[in-house]
Structure formats: C-alpha cells, structure tokens
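Reproducibility note. Readers wishing to regenerate the assembly model reported in the main text can use the exact inputs given here. Chain order matters: entities are listed in the order in which they were concatenated for prediction.
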Amino acid sequence: MTSQITIIEPSSKIRFINFRELWPYRELILSFVKRDIQVRYRQTVIGGLWAIVQPLFTMVIFSFFFGKLAGISGGGVPYPIFSYAGLLLWTYFTGALTAASGSMVASTSLITKVYFPRIIIPIAATITGLLDYLVASSVLIGLMLYFQIVPTTAILLVPITLLLTWMLAMGMGFWLSAINVKYRDIGYVLPFFIQLMLFVTPVIYPSSIAPNFKLLLSLNPMTGIIDAHRSMILGGLPINWGSLGISAVLVLLILFTGSAYFKSVEKYFADII
Amino acid sequence: MSDIAIKVENISKKYQIGENKKYPTLRDKLVELPSRLFKGPQKTKEFWALRDVSFEVKKGEVVGIIGRNGAGKSTMLKILARITEPTSGKITMYGRVASMLEVGTGFNPELTGRENIYLNGAIIGMTRQEIIAKFEDIVEFSGVGKFLDTPVKHYSSGMYVRLAFAVAAHLDADILLVDEVLAVGDAEFQKKCLGKMSDLAGSGKTVIFVSHNIGMIKNLCTKFRTKIFYKIKFDGQTDKALDIYIGVGKKITNNNSYKKNSELDLYLRKIWLTSTEGKYLNTFQINQSPQLWIEIEANIPTNKAEVSIQITNSSGVNIIFSSLSDFNKNKFYNFVPGIYQAKISIENNLLVPDIYAVSVTTHYRAEKRIELIEKAITFEIIESNSNMAPYGPASRSLTCIIKGSTWQFKKIE
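Running the prediction on these inputs yields the following structure tokens for the assembly.
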C-alpha cells in the first residue's frame, strides 16, 4: 500500500484524457449512474414510464402534423415508426447532452471537497440516459409488431450508432460542462440550440427530402448517425455508410478536442466554480 | 525510500482576483486580441495565498496547521488533497491519501442510509469490496442501524453527521488530511470523533489537521510526535509554535496607536502596557503588575458607553474580562467630546507564565458594539527569580491563574 506515490505539480497547459488514471474510478462512475437512476425513480410517480412518454407523445404529434397534414414521407416505412426510430436516439442524445452540460455545476460540492478525475462527472451523466433508451425501445418493438416490420441482421449493428451517439454527447458535454463552470450562459443557450438542431437533423424528415443539401446536412454529426440507426433497425432501408463515416470522424474530433479542453481547464474548476 | 510521508517543496498558489477572467477561453482570446494589440497585456490583480512553502512530514506524525483566517491553511490542505493545483512547486506523498475536508460529501437526501454509505464511500475513494467488508463497523459506529433503509432526508442532523463521519472514519489510508470536520455535532459526538482521530493517529497513520481551535490542536497533537506550522513558516514543537501563533498575530509591541476614525462615536486611539513605574514593557515577571493603558477619543457626545477588555492565554482560553462599569457600579459613562485615558492594573502573582493577548472593545451597554480590536496587544509573563518558583512554565498545564486558596492544615491525630 505504501508503494503508492502521489506527485502534485502544476500541470502543463494542454492535457489529454488519461485512461489509465480513469480505470480505478470505474466504480465511482457506476455509483454516480446508480445514484442518478435511484434518485429519479424515487422522486417520480411513474418513474421509468417517463422514458417512454416523451418520445411516444412527440411521435404522435409529429405523425399527425408532419406525417398526416404535411405529408412528409417516412422514406419507405410508415411515418410513426419512421419518426419514433429517430426520436428514440434523439431523445437519448439531447438528454445526455443536457445532463452532461449541467453536471459540473450540479456537482459543485463534490468538486470543492474531494478529489477524483473531474471528467468522471460528465461521463457518468451521459450513461444514465442509456437506461431510458432501453426502456423506450419497448415501444419501438410494439410499433414493429403492429406495422409488421421484420428486422434484418443489420439490427445487430445498432450498438455502433448508440456508441457514436454516446461519444458525441460526451464530447460536446466535455466542452459545454467545462465552459458552463465559468459561463452559466450555457444553461440558457443549450435548450434553444437543441431545439434548432432538431430541425437540421433527419428526425422529422428523411434526409432524402433535401438531396441538394446532403453534404451540408452531413456536417451535423447526428445526421449520419440517426439515418444509420433507423436503417439498421427497420431493415428495408439502405445504410448510408459514407454519411455515417463523416459522422464518425466528426464525433472523434469533437470527443478528442472536448476531452483535451476539459482536461486543460479542469485545474481551475475548484477555484472558480 | 525513507520515513518521509509528505514532502512539500516551494509550493506557491496564486489567485487572480477582481478580474473577470480566471482562465482563458477561446472567446476571451478573440475578444482580447484587439485590445492586446493596442494596449499591451492587461494587468490582473494577483493574490498569493501561499508563497514558497516547504516542509516535510514523517510517517506517523500528527501535524496541526494553525493560522488566522486567510493565512493559507485551507489552500494548503486543498492542494494536498488535489482539489486545486499549485501555481508552482512540487509535493510528493508516499502512501494512500484520504481527505476529510467535509463529512458526508455527496450524500444525497433522497437515498437511504445504506445507499449513501456506498455512494459516499465510493466518492471518498473506497472500493466496493472495502465498503462491504466494513459495512457492519460503519453502521455500528454511526448508531443509526434502525434507520438504515430510511432516506437520509428524514434523519435528524445529528444522525446525518454521525453516519457521514462513520463512513469517513473507516477509510483506510496512510495519510489523512482533515479539515475542521470535528467542529460539528454535539459535545458527545465530538468526543467520539476525537477518540477516533486519536486512534488513527496512534496507529501510525500520518495526519494533517487544519484548525483554528487551538485547544483542539493541543489535545490532539501533543500526545504524539508533533509539528505545528505557523502560517506554514514556523515548524517546531507544539507549545513553542502556539506561543508564536498567539504572539505574532499583531507584532509583539507594547504600544499601539490607531488612526483617527471619525465615523465612530468613540474610537480607540492608543493601547499600551507599562510597568507600575511607567516603563514601557511587554514582558513581566510573575510578581510584577502589568499596567494596561487605553486612550479613547469621543467624536460626539456618547451616552451610556462602556469599555471592556478581555485577556486570552495561549490556549485560547479567556482568563479575564473586565469593564469600565466594574468600578463605576450601575452607572455608565457619558462621554463628551474629548480624549479619555484608562489605566487597568492587572494583579501580580495572578497569571501563570504564558503569552497573553488583550482584546479591547467599546460598546453600548448590552447593545451594539462600537469597536473591537482583537488581540490588540500581547504580553508575556515570565518566571525567573521570584519566590513563586513552583509556578514555572509547566504550570500552564495545571492552571490558568495562580490565586491563593486559603489552606488550613494541621495534624489531628
């Protein structure tokens, strides 16, 4: 035990995420996730059902206004299941991003009183929502049974899109949670930003609706991911690997810069939070 | 590897105050760019909380860090606990480090006692296995066994603190960093905590303990090999360090004048000490009577005002409190504008050899305070060649004052 040596020194300006340092803290990440889930389920009446309510009701509204009245096509599948397959992932993404962005400020008392790698906080915040994703998937299964859609083996690839979404929520979460420590503006900007992003992401409409802007749309990393996610689940649609590839590159870029930014400014957190 | 547990080398910590930028963001850089080009770099107010602090702590030592507010104690502890980073310097720590800067960090009111033990344990650095192994001990120490499955929001504050301390106390570490967490809870619980701290300290763990409760430092530290830092500059034996702490706060001086303060109805102009012969002094033989002089100026007519003094020994115990009205029974002084002088004779053969600090205050009778100068002046009582030889410096642990009790003593059978 005494062989453990801790050296404290001013760190260099730019730092990157250190997985070796994080590994011993995996139990703490799980403890945070468990806490968030326990607390939420204890404080709400219908608990886990909230995970279903949000995407389900949104889907119903979308189906009526966009699917029925505006006549937007589901790209070959019935509109309700088309929009739900997108909303499922979108709901996870926005929830995880929102939770991660506010996570540092919400953990002020921890940050000023006890040491652990700070980056654990936004990481844990993005994991909690995965349970909601699983719960909300049950509705999707119901819809697939109802519309008699048989998935192909492509459905086994869904974890890839889920992983990319998680990484994106983390990457953006690192940026925003770190900035939020100093500038609480993030709390006001984010809901607005998420609302706008919904319209430039193919959740409501298939990306085939705007063939001329395809490249521009794929600069939004969620475009390729949402499209692929839907294609993998619903089988019949072709997977756009090119678009997914662009997304993957962007996700890695955001995750890398986000973690580097977070690590480089984290030493100031306790002083200014 | 030697028997060193903590080695601190030239640690400095700088805070930037006043300015609205504490770390550079991209946006800041962009906004700053034009002004940089034209004005040169902007000045920021700097504040050094710690400057070139170096010390070593050996394994098994219990070290108290004392100092006034703002002396840098907490900053030092936060750097040791890795909560904040030093601006320069290096610290090497050998062994597993645990910090108790607060009890119950991360406790969630919605969770039950049981769930919070696991959560808090994980936060302060215990592995799940460790918590499982010590679970029974923690519950027993806390004494909240019956309410283990009740959300802690329904706990009394005492139960809450007991549970929180119980978790922290079972953290197994070689080096413990402790802030004034013991200053919570009722007297009985504090005693229990102190006992636990003593156990930990006695079991060969290295403990760094920050407090401004001098009595607590003395209790906890003198029992073991001890080091005390004054403003982290002094490093030595407990008693000596405490003397310096008490004395140095305001430089040892026998004559303090203060600037005129016309905002106050009454203000303290000057405070000084002399011998009975009128010679300026700050060190008195035990059989000498220190004379405390206070000069007060009344700016406006001030009715029913009062002047009080308090004398505190090096353990922080208040020994003497005395007021102007003590000698002016039931009648308070009505000041008219002008300068007043008070001479307070402190009895000889009363105070044991020690360093004493005098605080002076002006106030309205049982009402609001006008002015308070804490530890305005300090003096030392020494014992060298009087006939009170038994009352050497060691007497401090026996008594605070030497005041005769009348003994009648005879052989009766």
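We highlight two features of this model. The mean pLDDT of chain A is 88. Residues 20-262 of chain A form one domain.
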